[in-house]
Amino acid sequence: MMTTGFISSLNLWNAPRTGLPRLQTELASATKEIGTGRFADIGATLGGGVAGAFGLRGQSAVLASLTQSNTAASLRLQATQGALQEIQSAAEATLNELIALPAEQRGSVATESARGRLAALAGALNTNAGGQFVFGGTNSATPPLTPYEGSPTSAAKTAVDDAFTRFFGFAPGSPASSGITPSEIKGFIDGMLTGRFTEVNWNRTWSAASSRTIDSRISLSETVTTSVSANAEPFRTLGMAYVIASSLGVSGLSQEAQAVATGKVMDLLGQATRSLTTMRADLGRAQSQITEANARMAKQTALLTGQIRDLEIVDPAEAKSRVDAITTQMQMSYGLTAQLRSLSLINFIS
């Protein structure tokens, strides 16, 4: 038995158009692959291998993040080294000035130079890099050191003046200072004044810094210290040296008492410069470690990039061929649809 199917112009018009959505999707994917150089749908193309590709990209992202954080750490270390050099140079200059002078002239010269260098110490310890105070430790958002001289009177100066007054019975710079004996000035410096420069009292009256320094992860397996706190011993030693020279009225003491005070200043300056040298060397090692870590991570990143490319790369010639083939198919489909739309029985009825 023979049957006839239903034929309509509408079915003929729609037949070439039914595959167009698929062709348009394939064209978009192929075009994207030409532009990016990788598969448009990694999951569909690699199947179970997509986990490996994502894992490689995750490792690469971690290395990129570490490299970026190392840039910030390097900036902080560079600024810290610059400030430390400034601080050490000032301390060495003060020490050399005093050594070069006769003992009887040291008191007046120390007073003149120490006041400015005490202010410079505060300025250097308040160094800011990238919006962070590099000597603030983990409290890097706040200026670490309050200037000693200023208005209103700083807590540090108040503490020193109060200690002097309680010990001697008169304020620093008083005419009565000429009667202070060498043993008395030594007792004050080694006792009450030294107590004002312990870490606890320094943090209470001088510094807003945290004693906890910043440790940075510089590679997948390395962590180094990348900051210095303004509470560190060399800065407290320098602060004490400059305070003795500038704030105790040394020039008004007897020659014997002056010799004791300036001798202590030179001793403290020598201690501080040696400690600063060690501190700068430690930071220099951290800078070298960061440089080496960055070099290793650059090699690791290049290796991961190659592995990712091997998994995801698209042959541009093959993708271009697909684009051309799909475009040709779509043009044929459009042309056929136009021809079918022009078919009409009216054209054949005479």
From TrEMBL:
* InterPro entries noted in UniProt: Flagellin, Flagellin_C, Flagellin_N
Pfam families, from UniProt? Flagellin_C (PF00700), Flagellin_N (PF00669)
Lineage, top-rank taxon, reads Bacteria
Q: Write out the annotated subcellular location.
A: Secreted; Bacterial flagellum
Regions crossing the membrane? none
Identify the keywords attached in UniProt to this record, alphabetized: Bacterial flagellum, Cell projection, Cilium, Flagellum, Secreted
Chain ranges of the Flagellin N-terminal domain: 7-139
The UniProt record lists the Flagellin C-terminal domain at 266-349
The entry's function note states: Flagellin is the subunit protein which polymerizes to form the filaments of bacterial flagella.
Q: Which NCBIfam families match?
A: PRK06008.1 (NF004669)
For this protein, the record's PANTHER family field holds: FLAGELLAR HOOK-ASSOCIATED PROTEIN 3, FLAGELLIN
The family this protein is said to belong to: Belongs to the bacterial flagellin family.
What's the name of the protein?
Flagellin
UniProt source species? Methylorubrum rhodesianum
